[in-house]
């Protein structure tokens, strides 16, 4: 990895890791007879939606899931023909192009279903629709009391020929808390909603499981699973043991200047850190504009020249400073800010723990205008 030139602020995306992760996840799904929808919303959790989508489809994923219509159409524009499901719609979304491109849509209400049906009729096509039941997350999804009317309307729309109901689905609130009573309660609600859909004359599949449920609840795989974060090698349930996932994103930079400073030298804005002895400082040209949170000032380290070394003083917009003691550190040396962790570097999970957030937020926020993203593919697809 380190024999290639290091960009100033570079995200390396290990496509081989994504393939391996999808193989792990889709094998688990297949064991329970389920297909796999790889979730590539938010630009593939910051990894690059098209890159991840292709890698996932090569490695056992059957279809793709995204939040917005734009994200779905981006996959189609890249030439991806696999089924794509898109679930978050605004009231004035134009469904026409999505229906023309065979993007599957979600309906949580009668009004939402009617908008899809009208757009399909205008296109002279059949829209494939997943009906969403709110089983307890209280976000999107149809409340249980309105569900019978929704499935009746969906059955009529199907009979009218412009809608095909392919699934009844929902989303879990606490799947990462093993044994949380809401998990079973939500699954039971989904089953009830599915039975009502069948009673109305529909024949949909069911899907509920996010990554945490793919890894820990095979009984909730139903006909299709929707892993997101685990595709990227980040484990939502590390307390359940090692699931054999490998983080695909490495954030790296390189040393642009080293200097020897005397004891008593204070570093960066506000002089919040002072050298207690003569030491060598390394300047790294990344800062909070590149995704290094300023609140990690004084609380983070990097992997540089064979060791973990502390970042000292404040993280600035464009720069940070690493204390290297008396070790030999050179301009041009690679600096790993986070990665899979197997070379000793920090991980995105470590950043998240330190910040009081989740690794999802770290990787999703990393790709910015000034940051390069390099796809590394050193393994052949199987
Ligand atoms: C983001 C998302 C997923 C994937 O969740 P992970 O926890 O990343 O596996 C699945 N389904 C829906 C509806 C989502 O919004």
UniProtKB/TrEMBL annotation:
GO terms for molecular function: alanine racemase activity; pyridoxal phosphate binding. The modification N6-(pyridoxal phosphate)lysine is found at residue 41. The keyword Isomerase applies. It comes from the Bacteria. Substrate binds at residues 139, 317. One of its GO terms (biological process) is D-alanine biosynthetic process. Transmembrane segments: none annotated. SUPFAM superfamilies: Alanine racemase C-terminal domain-like (SSF50621), PLP-binding barrel (SSF51419). Its EC number is 5.1.1.1. InterPro entries: Ala_racemase, Ala_racemase/Decarboxylase_C, Ala_racemase_C, Ala_racemase_N, Ala_racemase_pyridoxalP-BS, PLP-binding_barrel. HAMAP family: Ala_racemase. Belongs to the alanine racemase family. Catalyzes the interconversion of L-alanine and D-alanine. May also act on other amino acids. This is Alanine racemase. The lineage of its organism: Bacteria, Bacillati, Actinomycetota, Actinomycetes, Pseudonocardiales.
């Amino acid at each position: 990895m380190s024999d290639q030139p290091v960009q100033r602020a570079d995200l390396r995306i290990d496509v081989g890791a994504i393939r391996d992760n999808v193989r792990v996840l889709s094998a688990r799904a297949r064991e329970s007879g389920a297909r796999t929808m790889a979730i590539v919303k938010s630009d593939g959790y910051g990894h690059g939606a098209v890159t991840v989508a292709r890698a996932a489809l090569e490695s056992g994923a059957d279809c793709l899931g995204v939040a917005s219509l734009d994200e779905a159409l981006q996959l189609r524009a890249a030439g991806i023909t696999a089924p794509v499901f898109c679930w978050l719609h605004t009231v004035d979304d134009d469904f026409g192009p999505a229906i023309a491109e065979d993007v599957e849509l979600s309906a949580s209400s009668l009004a939402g279903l009617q908008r899809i049906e009208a757009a399909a009729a205008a296109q002279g096509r059949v829209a494939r629709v997943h009906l969403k039941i709110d089983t307890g997350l209280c976000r999107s999804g149809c409340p249980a009391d309105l569900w019978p009317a929704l499935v009746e309307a969906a059955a009529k729309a199907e009979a009218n020929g412009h809608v095909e109901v392919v699934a009844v689905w929902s989303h879990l609130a606490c799947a990462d808390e093993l044994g949380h009573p809401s998990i079973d309660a939500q699954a039971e609600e989904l089953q009830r909603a599915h039975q009502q859909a069948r009673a109305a004359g529909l024949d949909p599949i069911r899907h509920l499981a996010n990554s945490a449920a793919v890894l820990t609840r095979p009984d909730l795989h139903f006909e299709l699973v929707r892993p997101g974060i685990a595709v990227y090698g980040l484990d939502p349930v590390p307390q359940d043991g090692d699931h054999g996932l490998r983080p695909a994103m490495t954030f790296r930079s390189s040393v642009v200047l080293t200097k020897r400073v005397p004891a008593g030298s204070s570093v960066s804005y506000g002089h919040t850190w002072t050298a207690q002895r003569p030491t060598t400082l390394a300047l790294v040209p990344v800062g909070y504009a590149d995704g290094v949170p300023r609140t990690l000032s004084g609380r983070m380290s990097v992997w540089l020249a064979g060791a973990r070394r502390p970042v000292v003083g404040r993280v600035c917009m464009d720069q940070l400073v690493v204390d290297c003691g008396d070790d030999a550190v050179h301009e041009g040396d690679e600096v790993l800010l986070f990665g899979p962790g197997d070379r000793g570097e920090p991980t995105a999970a470590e950043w998240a723990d330190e910040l009081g957030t989740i690794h999802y937020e770290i990787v999703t926020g990393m790709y910015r205008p000034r940051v390069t993203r390099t796809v590394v593919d050193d393994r052949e697809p199987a």
